Structures are given as structure tokens and as C-alpha cells.
Amino acid sequence: MGPRSDMSTLQPDSDLASEEPEFKPLTAQQARELREKNPPLSPWRVIVGQILAGALVALLAWVLTGRPSVAWSVAWGALAVVVPAALFARGLASPVAQIHAGAAAFAFFLWEAIKLALTVAMLFAAPRLVVGLSWPAMLVGLVLAMKVYWLALVFKKTFSARLQTNKS
Q1: Cα separation, 114 vs 80, whole angstroms
Q2: pTM for the structure as a whole
Q3: Distance between terminal CA atoms of the chain?
Q4: DSSP 101
Q5: Torsion of the alpha carbons at 143, 148, 80 and 108, rounded to the nearest 10
Q6: Running DSSP on this structure, what letter comes out for residue 94?
Q7: pLDDT digits (tens, 9 = 90+) for 19-50
Q8: DSSP secondary structure string, 149-163?
Q9: DSSP code for 134
Q10: Which of 114, 113, 40, 130 is nearest to 78 (CA)?
């Protein structure tokens, strides 16, 4: 075998150690100011955005194709995201989910599993509930509603800036 290295003899590189910034915990006032500068994004705003985006694209699909079944397919795809997301948000907002960290983690995984199961169930139910279902149109509604999460994150700073100017 080759030479054996002993990890306990290695010394930290003094250049790297000097580059690391010293960690300083925030004071209560600094933490409050940080939260005011960066308010959390409400899940209900995202859900409203998903509803509006789904309705707009469903209407657009109806106008472009002239077929109500395509519009209903897009709307069902959006609903397959919105309804489970609303249930998930409501479940996480319950007082039981906020008792302590363990309960919050359990609630998150429980409600996420429920959200996924409901989404799959809604997709399986679509052919029976939507007359003349168009799978591509339904997938457009589904993907579009999921992408609203990303748009909400992108535009969060814009909304936050508007709120700050309105408060002033």
C-alpha cells in the first residue's frame, strides 16, 4: 500500500481562515428590520395568481379555438394545481402545524402527500368529468398554474417595493 495520510496532522490554511467573515447574531431590532425589508410571500397571493392565470388562459383557449371543451380542459389542469395547493396552504396554517418544529415538519410532509394524492386523483378523474377532454390543453393549464410559483418569486421584490412606497 502507499503512504498513509493522517488527517489529524493537517493544519487549516491560514489564508482561508482569515477570509471567513466572523459570524455575528442579529439583535432583535436588526431581525425585525430584516423581516420588514423582506416580508414573506403569502401562499394565498400565489393561489389567487394561479386562479387568475388559469382563468385567463382558459378564456384565451376558448377564444382561439372556439371550443369550450378546450377551455374546460385548461381550467381543469389549473384546478388540479390550485385546489391541492389551497388545501396544503390551509393545512400548514392550522394551529396544530405550528405547535413546535417536529409538528411543523410532520404537517409539511403530511399535507404535501395529501396535495400530491389529490393532484393525481384530479388528473385521473379528468376524462370522466371534463366532456371532450383535451390532454394537451389540460397539461398547458397544469404547467401554467405550477409556473405561477416562479413568477410570484420573481415579482416578489416588485410587490414588496410597492408595499413599502404605499406605507410611506
Answers
A1: 13
A2: 0.72
A3: 71
A4: H
A5: 120
A6: S
A7: 667 778 888 888 888 888 877 778 888 899 99
A8: HHHHHHHHHHHHHHH
A9: -
A10: 130
